[in-house]
C-alpha cells in the first residue's frame, strides 16, 4: 500500500509539473510575439521572465521524476536533494534575467522609444495573469500536499509572474497617455520583484544543500524529547533535510536499570512523536544508559 501511495504521489507531481511546462510555453510565445510587434520592453522583459518560468518548469518536471526514487547504495538518504538543487538552479536563472532587464530598462530611459499599444497587448498580459494564477494555485496545492520544494519553487515563479504582469499592464495603460518612460519603469519594477523572490528562494535552497538545520525544526524536536519524562538527557541531535524528507538522529539517555525492551519502547515513542509532528520525517534514535557519556 505504501508503494502504491508513493507511485500515486509521483504521478500527481509529474502531472502538475507537465501542465506547468505547457502553460509556460504558451505564455512565453504569446508575450514574445506581442512584445516584438509593440516594441514594449515591459512585455519583452515579461517574455524573458516567462521563458525562465518555462526552463524552471522543465527542470521541475525532470526533478519530480527523480526526487522520489528510493534510497540506493550511492544515495543512502534518497534523491530528495535533486529538488533543492533544482530550486538553486532556478535562482541563478532568475538573477541572470534581472541583469538583462535592468540593463535594457536603463538603456530605454536614456533613449526613450515609443511603443505601439493595441488590443493584443492587453489580451496577452491579462491572459497571462489568469493562466499564471491557475498554475500557481495548482502548484502550491501539490507542493503543500507532497512537501515538495521543487513544486513550491515553480509555484513561486508563476506567482511572481502574476505581479510582474500586473505591473506591465499598468505600464501599457500609461503608454496610452504618451508616458513611454513608464514602460521602462515597469520593467525595473519587474526586475526588483524577481530579485526579491530569487533571494528568498536561493537562501532556502542553499541552506538545505549545506544541511543547515532549521531553527524551528530543531526547537520542535527538543520540545518533544524534553516532554518525555523517561528521557533523562540527550546529545548529538542532528537534523538535515533532503527534498521532501527530514532526517533526525539523536542519542537519548535512559535509566540504566531499564530492560532492553523498556528502553526500546521509549526509543520507539520518541521516534513516533517526532514523526507525528514533522511531516515526512525519518528518525533514528540511539538509547544509552544515563551514567555513560
Strand order of the largest sheet: 1-2-3
The mean pLDDT is: 79
CATH homologous superfamily placement of the largest domain: Cation efflux protein transmembrane domain
> Terminal Cα separation, in Å?
42 Å
Q: What is the share of helical residues? A: over 70%
Q: Which regions contain 5 or more consecutive residues with pLDDT less than 50?
A: none
**What sequence of helices (H) and strands (E) makes up the elements?**
HHHHHHHEEHE
Binned strand content = 5-15%
CATH architecture of the largest domain: Up-down Bundle
Q: Any idea how many domains? A: 2
Instruction: Label the overall shape.
Output: elongated
Structural class designation:
mainly alpha
Tell me the CATH topology of the largest domain.
Answer: Alpha-lytic protease prodomain-like
Largest sheet: 3 strands, mixed
Radius of gyration: 25 Å
Please tally the helical runs, counting DSSP H or I stretches of 4 or more residues: 8
Total strands: the figure is 3
- Just give the CATH class of the largest domain: Mainly Alpha
Amino acid at each position: 500500500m505504501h508503494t502504491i501511495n508513493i507511485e500515486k504521489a509521483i504521478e500527481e507531481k509529474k502531472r502538475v509539473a507537465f501542465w506547468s511546462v505547457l502553460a509556460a510555453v504558451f505564455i512565453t510565445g504569446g508575450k514574445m510575439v506581442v512584445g516584438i510587434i509593440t516594441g514594449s520592453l515591459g512585455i519583452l522583459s515579461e517574455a524573458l521572465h516567462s521563458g525562465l518560468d518555462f526552463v524552471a518548469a522543465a527542470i521541475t518536471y525532470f526533478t519530480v521524476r527523480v526526487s522520489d526514487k528510493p534510497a540506493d547504495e550511492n544515495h543512502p538518504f534518497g534523491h530528495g536533494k535533486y529538488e533543492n538543487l533544482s530550486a538553486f538552479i532556478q535562482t541563478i536563472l532568475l538573477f541572470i534575467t534581472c541583469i538583462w532587464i535592468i540593463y535594457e530598462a536603463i538603456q530605454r530611459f536614456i533613449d526613450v522609444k515609443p511603443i505601439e499599444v493595441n488590443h493584443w497587448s492587453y489580451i496577452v498580459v491579462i491572459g497571462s495573469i489568469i493562466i499564471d494564477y491557475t498554475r500557481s494555485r495548482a502548484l502550491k496545492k501539490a507542493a503543500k500536499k507532497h512537501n515538495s520544494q521543487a513544486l513550491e519553487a515553480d509555484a513561486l515563479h508563476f506567482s511572481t509572474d502574476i505581479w510582474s504582469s500586473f505591473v506591465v499592464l499598468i505600464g501599457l495603460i500609461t503608454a496610452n497617455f504618451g508616458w513611454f518612460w513608464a514602460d521602462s519603469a515597469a520593467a525595473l519594477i519587474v526586475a526588483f520583484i524577481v530579485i526579491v523572490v530569487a533571494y528568498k528562494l536561493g537562501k532556502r535552497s542553499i541552506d538545505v544543500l549545506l544541511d543547515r538545520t532549521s531553527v524551528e525544526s530543531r526547537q520542535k524536536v527538543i520540545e518533544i524529547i524534553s516532554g518525555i519524562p523517561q528521557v533523562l538527557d540527550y546529545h548529538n541531535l542532528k537534523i538535515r533535510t533532503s527534498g521532501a524528507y527530514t532526517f533526525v538522529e539523536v542519542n537519548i539517555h535512559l535509566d540504566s536499570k531499564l530492560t532492553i525492551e523498556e528502553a526500546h519502547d521509549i526509543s520507539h515513542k520518541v521516534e513516533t512523536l517526532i514523526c507525528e509532528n514533522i511531516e515526512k520525517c525519518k528518525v533514528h534514535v540511539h538509547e544509552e544508559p544515563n551514567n555513560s557519556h
